[in-house]
Amino acid sequence: MKRSPLIPYLIWMVLFTVVPMVLVLYYAFTVPTESGVTWSLQNFARFFEPIYLRVLGRSIRLAVISTALCLILGYPAAMVMAGNAFKRKHVIMLLFVVPMWMNFLLRTYAWLTILERNGFINALLSFFDLPRLNILYTNSAVVLGMVYNFLPFMVLPIYSVLSKIDKGVVEAAGDLGANPFQVFMRVILPLSLPGVVSGITMVFMPAMTTFVISRLLGGGQFTLIGNLIEQQFLVVGDWGFGSAISVVMIVVILLSMAIMSFFEGEEKDVALW
Amino acid sequence: MGSVAPKRLALTILSLVVLSLLLTGCGKEQPVLYVYNWGDYIDEDILEEFEKESGIKVVYDTYSTNEDMYVKIKSGGSSYDVIFPSEYMLTRMIKEDMILKIDLEKIPNHVHIDPKLMGAEYDPNNEYSLPYMWGTLGILYNTTMVDEPIDSWDALWDPKYSKEILMLDSQRDSIGAALLKLGYSINTRDPGELAEAAQLLKQQKPLVLAYVVDEGKDKMVSGEAALALTWSGEAMYAIGENSDLAYAIPKEGTNLWFDVMAIPKGAKNVEGALKFMNFLNKPEIALRNAEYTGYSTPNLAAWAMLPEEVRNDRGAYPTDEDIAGAEVFVSLGETLREYDRIWTEVKAY
Amino acid sequence: MVRFLKRSYIYLVFAFLYLPIAVLMVYSFNDARSRGVWGGFTLRWYVELFQDRTIMSSLYSTLLIGVSSAVIATIIGTMAAIGIHNTRGVQKKLIMNVTYLPVLNPEIVTAISLMILFVFTRVRLGYLTLLLSHITFNVPYVILSVLPKLRQLNKHLYEAALDLGCTPLQALWKVIIPEIMPGIITGLLLAFTLSIDDFVVSFFTTGSGVSTLSITVYSMARRGINPKINALSTIMFTFVLALLIIVNVRQAREERKGRNGKRGPKKVSPYDPKFGSA
Lengths: 273, 349, 278
Hints:
The complex is a heterotrimer.
Chain A: H1 7-28, E1 30-33, E2 36-39, H2 42-47, H3 50-82, H4 89-97, H5 104-115, H6 120-127, H7 139-162, H8 167-175, H9 180-209, H10 212-217, H11 225-236, H12 239-264
Antiparallel strand pairs in A: 1-2
Helix pairs in contact in A: 1-12, 3-7, 3-9, 7-9, 8-9, 11-12
Chain B: H1 4-24, E1 32-38, H2 45-54, E2 57-63, H3 66-75, E3 82-83, H4 87-95, E4 129-142, E5 165-168, H5 171-182, H6 191-204, E6 208-212, H7 216-221, E7 227-231, H8 232-241, E8 245-248, E9 256-262, H9 270-280, H10 283-293, H11 300-305, H12 308-311, H13 335-348
Parallel strand pairs in B: 1-2, 1-3, 5-6, 5-7
Antiparallel strand pairs in B: 4-7, 4-8, 4-9
Helix pairs in contact in B: 5-6, 6-13
Chain C: H1 2-26, H2 44-49, H3 53-85, H4 89-104, H5 107-120, H6 127-152, H7 155-163, H8 168-197, H9 200-205, H10 213-220, H11 227-260, H12 273-276
Helix pairs in contact in C: 1-11, 3-6, 3-8, 3-10, 4-6, 6-8, 7-8
């Protein structure tokens, strides 16, 4: 048990994660010249121009907001699910992911239909003589799209941790005089932290690199880092620059996670070195 | 949740998977033709008819953008016999030695193709390709929201239509529209001209509702915006769904685009590919594809069989005068990066 | 009352999640090709759907790849999580950081690098490469789902099982696995979901003749997504919902029978939380 279960994964990881990553690094640190390929930092130098940094900044901001919203919406949902409000917990859990089995593009187009000027929400508002809302093609629409698509990735891991928290511990805290708020802050929340960390990871990282959501719901006006990278690989054909952007982004994220876990002190499942 | 049932289920599924993986490895003897096209860009019954007539089995795959297709072919991982790139992508692929020359004698039906659409700049002697569909870049507008005649690119910069304008989230098309408005070539490499176009696009940004791609036509259909920069094929689709819409080719000039048929290097069934291209150029087949897709066919014989109102629609089949100054996109090479930078700046502005 | 509030909250979240689904289902009955107009009620998309060989074969590939990649990824991922849980120090951090890479890498980068890898190693692009790629981006999600459950696990549970005469494998299978089951199921669900929803990686790692539903849908985008896809989604959704209801009703009936009839004493599971925390 000490090391055997890891071996298949390690082999897998080296083959399909490490080797491709080496390729990305290779592209990032080289530029094609007439006589072949030379090592260069040119691709990175290009990224540190204000315009690209602004794109990075905006991506981080939107991803952080979306992750926070997912947590705020998702944690209570996971708690309710883990409690005794519902008898069939597996069904509730499944109902969280079933919408995601419908094609992503169709779901996002459906959001267009809902949010448009003559869309569902505005039809409803004007029916009640309320002023119209213009949400589509704003930052809020992009955040909404991200929250919609990533919410299950926050709820499920938190739920799975909460569902087996020892009820005795919770009761004991209550018996010892803690009010419900204290019970939550001192007992439930700390015990569910591993699930929260997983949830944040699974929401924040994809939110950083999504490009279809920002293109469709943001009306192409909010270039995010994902759009930029996709553009380099496909439209411009500048794989070097595209790879360099992703390397920078990965380093930024892993570093910020390392700092996070440093502040948390204890050894967590997150961390750079 | 019992622990035995999932285990058995998992085993069953696993063995099924392994089995199906093994089975797909077995090939049949029948000759096969691998066709790679845009999604929903052909009447699929035609494929079956071709199979019946030629005895060649067609394996039909689809892609969503030229760039996706290019990367797939370039990698060499999968080989196709017939592809349908747009003209600018064809130029790039020819330059990178990725396209086979075709023998027009083996495609006798090429005589049906409109001579004025043959021999365009991207392939002067039609050594590499034959046009499949063609069209222009113009303005799709809603006649209930716009009460003046639209005949100029200036309309897309008119403050009257603030937040009623849809531009394309596509570097070359949107920058192209700005260049045309300025009276420059859409293939310019001149940094000064490009800077002017960039300036113009930044000025326009507050007026733009959104930079759209494929969803733009549906937005025009539902009356979400008054004006949109659009390709003629998409415009025809939108007009078909909402008769208030109209399409105009601005007087300053337009971009003439082609989706062509070509054979990539590495094709395994060149004979079959030529047969297929010939089949698609049969007048009645070309007619059916034109009717199915709603795009403009370059096949004159097919055009002649179209209903009169389609045939005489100047949006779908512009007169020589309409497209007098029209330009075809030329591959830009390194200058494309400059376009990309401009576009990123406009959008992040 | 509190229970009512709690339930209402979940229903509200569901309303948010299912609103777009309702919209796309409504449009499957729309007698117009475009999402932009309502052309009246029709069932023609349903009729046409079953005649469309491209859509039907891509549905088959999607489910095949979805189920098999999810199952394999869950097995590999669960084993890996157990392994990682028992590793310490630098080694653990290194493995964790590499685990994040497929989640962190933009899809397009993962897709193209995997494609290059397959082409370079001359693996024929097709079902196999599609499966391998899907497993690759699924495994991290399984690990991230299972790890929290392991961290929650009572450290002495495994030792207790060994003391009570279990072999290590038995201890793993009968004590650890059931205890982390919610995490495993979460991982399985997320993996399946990711797999059937993926476009970019699938597109670049598949070969001629093999197309998933996502590839088919995205490639329709330029010409407008055919409402046949809405019809298919509606059928899929109704099917899953019906399945859920049937299973539920059956379970409920069995429970009632169990309560009324004799079902023997309730088994006390040795890994009951109360037992574990002792």
